[in-house]
Design brief:
Elements lengths: L1 H21 L7 H26 L1
Helix pairs in contact: 1-2
Protein name: Spo0E family sporulation regulatory protein-aspartic acid phosphatase
Organism: Candidatus Cellulosilyticum pullistercoris
Length: 56
């Protein structure tokens, strides 16, 4: 769980940095989109694991 949290934080920081550097026009780039999708998947996986842990 701790590693997943680190991974999510790392991706969030990278996405924020990428958005900051590219400005409003950068929101439409494939790299921003790809990183955003990866981040969403990690967050979903984290919460699924979290809910399974609490149910056990």
């Amino acid at each position: 769980m701790k590693e997943m949290k680190k991974s999510i934080t790392f991706m969030q920081n990278n996405l924020n940095r990428l958005l900051y550097m590219s400005g409003p026009a950068g929101c439409k780039t494939s790299s921003v989109y790809s990183l955003s999708v990866m981040l969403d998947k990690e967050i979903v996986k984290y919460y699924k694991d979290l809910s399974q842990t609490k149910c056990s």
